Amino acid sequence: MIESRILKGLDLFRGGFEKAGVDYPMMRSILQIKLIMDGRRVPTIVAGGNSRKKRQTSLGLTYVEEGNSFIRSLWLYALMGLMLVPIVLYGDNYIFQMSIVFGIMMFLVMTSLISDFSSVLLDIRDKTILFTKPVNRKTINMAKLIHILIYMFFVTGTLAAPSLIAGLVDHGVLFFLIFLVETILMDVLIVVLTAVLYFFVLKFFDGEKLKDMINYVQIALSIAITIGYQLVSRLFNLVNLTGHFQPKWWHIFLPPLWFGSPFETLLHGTRQSHYLIFTMLVIVVPVLMLFIYIRMMPAFERNLQKLSDQSVRAGRAGGRLTDLIAKWVSGSREEETFFRFAAKMMSTERDFKLKVYPTLGFSIIFPFIFFFLDFHEGGLQGIASSRMYLFIYFCALLVPTVVMMLKYSGQYKGAWIYQIAPISHTAPIYKGTLKAFLARLLIPMFILESIIFLAIFGVRILPDLLDVLLMLPLYTLISFMVLRKALPFSEAFEATQQKEAMLTIPLMLILGVFAGIHYLSTEIPYGVYIYMGLLLVLNVAGWKTVFRRTSSSQLTSGQEVDG
Amino acid sequence: MENREPVITIRDLRMKYSDRYVLNGIDLEVFKGQIIGYIGPNGAGKSTTVKIMLGLVEGYTGEVKILGTDISSGDISYKRRIGYVPEIAEVYDTLTAKEYLTFIGELYGITREAADEKARRLVDCFGLKEAYNSRISSYSKGMRQKVMIISSLLHNPDILFFDEPLSGLDANSVMVLKEILTLLAEQGKTIFYSSHIMDVVEKISSRIVLLGGGQILADGTFSELKDRSKEGSLEQIFNQLTGFNEHRQIAEAFVAAVQEA
């Protein structure tokens, strides 16, 4: 087991800990338990996959599976670490290369620390469970710190290892040593920065705000990784790595540049004052921050209490717009109820946001990635006069995925309410939920996208955008028909099925068909308007009939496949 | 009883959150073998008192001595002789009962093997044998509560702090636990028992301390309290002493609201 190997390694430092007044055996058992628990969490970075295999007993209880899901997630970091290698090997322009390397590493390590390790930093159960036991505070705090450091060791280790080796081979031992020491300093800086960030958020806001913030960082991480894959190959075109770099005073606010500087001063013998100052900052700031952190630890623990406080706050005055839209688009009172319920769930349920919002962000950016591909050929002018606005269809790629996700929720157990409420048929439930998805997620995103497209292509594409706008509800409906139907928010995310996810691929092809028809319609006079009329008719007919077919189905728990 | 050394001594205990006093001068002496029913309305300061004694809450004024140790002295060895069941069953629920209980045992300074052996026997008594190697996250509320109770007794403590220990337990388990408490008290353990269920408090407590507005409103055996307030049940005494007599009006307003269209 990996846990016991980590702890054996730690045993080497036993004497040091005991000198510092730490009860070592106690700290060791706390760490052991924490590491076991880590192994059973699913990190954000692999949360999409179905990595959990559970064995059920007759009692319906879950047995522990072997293996550590955290360690298993490390290969993804190793993969990203490999992407850094070409940057390290590119040449001798260290300030550029290494600032980029450290920039990427800092971003990845910090986001992964926030998204996956916040639960450790912020675990309030520690207080009731550990503080009531005869264990001194120093031991508990040290266990917490070591726990975070073990995590950092693995993440930065796998992330930096490929570039470290490449650096050793290509640039020599001194380069390797500078790189290694700086990586450690970077870790210290990041741990303290994150803790300080939490400290201030907790000081001025309440725990819910912090949980929201962590949620958004998780979303940002998912978006960044997806887009990162797309952009990394183009990175070298965007930045001129061979150009001469002239440091400016305001570069002092860019920590990655600090980390690039020692390579210049120590390896190239650059004596420019900017580089010397940056090199000093690399050492001074992390060490200084560490002292501040140790000082702040007790105050931090006190603020942590806020996480468990149930603050009774009056609900925000907002939601009027949702109410208005709900009334306007709903056919019945039941439908209106489920519209509002689904809209609320989509905007507040953290697990749902974590799964769906990255796709949303990706959909906004996706159409533009293709512009980049063609950018250098015709320039902006060339794009504006083309029919490339049809790339806006790419922003509907998320529809099948989200329609599939609407079944799931982190709080799926609350779905018992469907069973006991006197709801005669499911049609208003599905209708309301899909309309809420259109009105609260898809169409706002499409409008945002349209504004950018109008700015690039001009008002001439307005009828085409209207076509796409009409296509969205129809496409949503088709996705709903094809995919397995289950009551909204009624199943656990872990129940996501591979087979069903495969169904989204033919659905994406259908989107291509829509785009194809649209393209052809631009070839014939008034074609765009004929297409528009066609979509309108299909929408009205579709939304009228599809639910009639499903409404006869019994209101069953989400487990059954119908339709 | 009074000529013996008290197990818990609290003198003029005050605690202020922001600008409101939650505890407003508590004086209390608790002796060996007593089962204290520590009752009071929501927000009376029950949990705060218990949390101060466990060292979870700091910033109080006054003196708290447990087993002769002033708890503000920084000497935490007294915690070795305390068992605690918190009101909300906070537990590392990705662990199995075996892992969790042996871990808690270790924190109390018991070896892993001894803790496992003892936990196994206690779990067996509570009928959780099947679930011992399953994750706590898959447990029902009552099963979790049993794990909490076992975790508070693994190290054979002298003082027990039980905050709503019966929540989620079925009627049979409640009977077992009540019997356990009585037997433990007979063996000289002190039990500090907070609950909102007055019937149980009335039956098992050898002494009842009623808290209201951060102060002790009444302190004595059930019969003493009954003599003093001339009411029949502890529930009625509770209502009378906390000055609550509008239950009828509130219930009527509630039902009226239910029946409105």
TrEMBL record, chain A:
Keywords: Membrane, Transmembrane, Transmembrane helix. The keyword Transmembrane applies. The chain crosses the membrane at residues 74-91, 97-124, 145-169, 175-201, 213-232, 275-294, 354-373, 388-406, 437-459, 465-483, 503-520, 526-547. It comes from the Bacteria. This is Uncharacterized protein. It comes from Paenibacillus zeisoli.
Automatic annotation (TrEMBL), chain B:
This is ABC transporter ATP-binding protein. GO terms for molecular function: ATP binding; ATP hydrolysis activity. It comes from Paenibacillus zeisoli. Residues 8-238 form the ABC transporter domain. Keywords: ATP-binding, Nucleotide-binding. It comes from the Bacteria. SMART domains: AAA (SM00382). PANTHER family: ABC TRANSPORTER, ATP-BINDING PROTEIN (PTHR43613:SF1). InterPro entries: AAA+_ATPase, ABC_transporter-like_ATP-bd, ABC_transporter-like_CS, P-loop_NTPase. Pfam families: ABC_tran.
